[in-house]
């Protein structure tokens, strides 16, 4: 069996130019030699980066016979860090879906034909970004698979993120995260401050995603420490064609806790809907 890490392409960087400033995004292509294959775009979790995915994107791309695009959002990994004084707004996930991801696709010259065949694979915050992208750009993807996405804020979510802050400031958690981010405080406090903003308690995208038309697979672990199964149930109520997978003995990272089950579910889902 091929080592998943062995075929990962060298990390590259691209500049995204905005109205106020530009940011540098680190990205990697997986299986770039498959020039005619569909692309799977991987959207990481709230403390994630290219490095924190480890070998799973390569494993899934090999299973799907597709190319992969993995990148670190601004503030994460080796991408441009968040300024120390910068506080992300309540709409920070919308901005990633509606501004940053489309700008990255433009910068990498991924055209309309390729986007129409593109699959989004998002975990946690990345899953939410995938849902918001599918709502905003219905013609610019083939479908999406989301792992432990957030639609609204639950008390257990706030409790889990508060505990994460305590761990970050009092244990070796910060040191462990340093392996995945050039500026670990940028990544952690950008995410943590946004989610613990009192205004964020009223954040809810359930009604917004009801317009999603593309195939949607939603996966969550039954032991998720950050959210209840109400998140998936709300997806099913809002998007009637959504397919749900609820995994036993699985926490907030299904691709790590139940890798085979997740890969099987995504492969079957894509095979069913692939054009």
Automatic annotation (TrEMBL):
The protein, known as: Alpha/beta hydrolase
GO cellular component terms, A-Z: membrane
One annotated GO molecular function: hydrolase activity
Pfam families, per the entry: Abhydrolase_6 (PF12697)
Gene3D superfamilies per the UniProt record, alphabetical: alpha/beta hydrolase (3.40.50.1820)
UniProt keyword annotations, A-Z: Hydrolase
Superkingdom of source: Bacteria
